[in-house]
Amino acid sequence: MLALLTSFTLLTSCYPDGAEYADETDIVYTVYDKQADFGSKGTYAMPDKIVKITGSYQDNGDIEYINDIYAGPILANIDANMQAYGWTKVDEASNPDVVVLPAAWSTTYLVYWYDYWCWWDPYYCGGWWYPYPVTSSYSAGTLLLNMVDPKSNDPNGTRKGIWLGTINGLLSGSYSQNRVNNAVNQAFKQSPYLNTK
Questions:
Q1: What SS3 state is found at 117?
Q2: H-type helices in the chain, by residue range?
Q3: 22-194 CATH choice from 3.30.420.10, 1.10.150.670, 3.30.160.670, 3.65.10.10
Q4: How far apart are alpha carbons 190 and 48 in whole angstroms?
Q5: pTM above threshold 0.90
Q6: What is the pLDDT of residues 18-49, one digit of tens each?
Q7: What is the distance between the alpha carbons of residues 171 and 35, in angstroms, rounded to a whole number?
Q8: Burial classification of residue 72, based on how many CB atoms lie within 10 Å of its CB (0-12 exposed, 13-18 middle, 19 or more buried)
């Protein structure tokens, strides 16, 4: 019980009145295959585009990609983090040890509730409160960094994922490349097992 109260106090003391900036709502989560031997690997390949996950491909539509203006710096930062951990980038045809597959999607949420006109001065409206609908919306974006072992196949013929970085919240608020870089850096920072040095 004491540990629970201490954790709650620490969490609420960080932002006692709630988060003030959009980047304070970003969440970076990483998970990996504990049986993967990253130390025995050293080369990676990565596409030069970031796939935008939509329903169009499932509907036999074209694959969509994140605009190169945004994707380019993200991919460069992933490269920098991989190389800082001792990885060497190679072409996919060069039989890399792993393949990093970045992808992204965004979701727009619609919030709908009833408010009351004249709540601030009911006497102005003769003592009546008039309910009226209020709507607003916000977007939340997610960037996925999926590392797969191209030499492995599961029974369905798909490659085995050995590391996944998920960064949520990136599209809330105004876009900031620095914010995205910080989140990608955090994903690698909390994944020291990827270091091959």
A1: strand
A2: 2-14, 68-84, 177-189
A3: 3.30.160.670
A4: 25
A5: no
A6: 444 444 557 899 999 999 999 999 999 999 99
A7: 34
A8: middle
